[in-house]
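pipeline/complex-builder :: batch 7 item 3
reading input block
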Amino acid sequence: MLDTGRSGAGSQSRAVCAYRSAVRWPLLISLATACAPLSPPRAIITVGAAGGPPRNAVLALPTTCETTESILCEPATYYQGTGGAAHRPVNDFAAQIEPIVRLKLELAGYTLVDARTLRLSTIERTETTIASQRRGGAVSDAATTRLGDAPSVAGLAPADRAAAAQSLGLAGELSSTLRISRDGAGLGARIRFALVLELRALPGGTVLWTARCSDLEEDPEGTARLVANCAGDGVLAWRAPDAVIGGVP
Amino acid sequence: MTRARAVAAIAAVVVAGACSVEKLPPIRMVHRGTGAPRRAVVLPTECAPSETATRAEDPRAWCKGIEAIVAGELAFHGVELVDLAKLPAGERTRHVVAVSSQINGASSERREVTVTGPTYSDVDMWTQRAALDALGVDTLVRVRAARLPTWPIRTLALVRMVRPSDASLIAASVCELEVSRVDGETETIERATRCALQGIAP
């Protein structure tokens, strides 16, 4: 703090300096922290007794969300009253998590087959094209495609699912679970997102490895992406350390 | 006052410019397996939903052009592409309704064509597997893309080619771009995909 030394004006100058310092320091600290990356969450990998499987095709199950308060699994809950809900079209966290996790695991050498895309029966397709011309005017075309519905491997019971996966030569089954909990007691407690990836061998269901990463919720969709990236990077660093971009060679 | 405004304007330009600068050049990594693609199926791109799409918009619209970029690049290098959604899996029915009318000397025409029946993209998984063999498809191509919530933001695109029979790797290429918040999602994902494709061009 500066002291001008001028009698009479000293206390006023000190007050101004104190005010300026109070304004400047938080500003400087804010700028400094804005430029510094936050410490990222860390993934914990647990390898089963059977170890990792050969890099092969595995069945990827849809991401599920587990919590003691069901509303916490709905992204819209976090935006109520903030005015941000209009810009949040995603209605479940799986859409945020799966693309990132699957990208990282395929980079690590696994080939993932989405259980929802494996149909158990053929669906019907109806393609309609309508061309019309009125009173010698321009021809207008409109085309629509309607697809039927069919059950997929994702909807099967575990034993049937395993049998279906094996019939296609898939060697494992990847599950992905987002667990949302409160970090402490009471409604004011902060919310924690934890993503658990688990790969089981087929047949038998032996756990080959588990990857877990958790972080406190800052922005729900951003945190979902963050833990997905973290868990995926954990598997990547373990299975294919050479594929970690920016990693130490 | 004018000087202060000028300084503020310059500062704003500098900050905006700093935000739009790409921090690092693209980083590409390529893994090569065995063989080369000859006849391929490009699977639908899987990408994270857009962060900026509103409820009225398709959150995955930003990555819909990616398959066309990949298909174009592979075709340019001589890879034959098979579109399962355009190959009928069996006999299909075609129903045509044509209506012509004339009112007060002005004519109108309407023609409605309805085709019903599955293509190879609609069949059950076992039939599809058999169809890939029957069609001589030796490569499945998958593109995955996402914007990572790191600091600074990164866009990642992975192009991976495997054999349908045993999922063995033919080639995989990933490209990571460090981008700023002012860069458009579509633009950065296209750049990342083109960058990844350069690594696995047959």
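note: The mean pLDDT of chain B is 84.
queue -> next item
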